[in-house]
Amino acid sequence: MRLHSMTPPEIDEIWSGIWAEAQRAHARVHDAESTLKKYEKWGMDKPRHHEAVEKAAAIYREAVRVAQSKEAPFKAEWDRRGGWSRYRVVPGGHYHRFRGCSSIRWSTVVLWTPEHS
């Protein structure tokens, strides 16, 4: 794949899939770690599936690492070009250039629209 000869929408179309993969893995790690913290916080004895949750967290941490390594060439190309415009759509159909808008909450579903890069 020759990222240097691709357009930003072409790059972001591929990158968005890898990014989504990384986000799913991050969410799974967060869920597993939250479950483990709840066991500790509530002083619960380790339930029989505790080891399974720990193993799942480790598997998803590895999935995050793999996805991040897949993203590396895309990030390098982004940096080489000095970035480009990106737009994300939120429920209601309006677009944002960046996630830092004050109207976006942590729970807001934000979809990357690579075709508008």
Q: What's the short version?
A:
The chain is mostly helical and about 120 residues long. The protein has two helices and three strands; from the N terminus they run H-H-E-E-E. Strand 1 and strand 2 form a beta hairpin.
Describe the structure.
- With 117 residues, this protein is mainly alpha-helical.
- 56% of the residues lie in helices and 5% in strands.
- The chain is built from two helices and three strands; from the N terminus they run H-H-E-E-E.
- It has a three-stranded antiparallel sheet with strand order 2-1-3, with no helix packed on it.
- A hairpin with a 5-residue loop joins strand 1 and strand 2 (95-96).
- The chain starts with 7 loop residues before the first helix and ends in a 5-residue tail after the last strand.
- The mean pLDDT is 83.
What is the terminal separation in angstroms? 19 Å
Spatial arrangement of strands, main beta sheet: 2-1-3
Which class of secondary structure composition applies to the elements?
Answer: mainly alpha
Number of DSSP E strands:
3
Q: How much is the average pLDDT?
A: 83
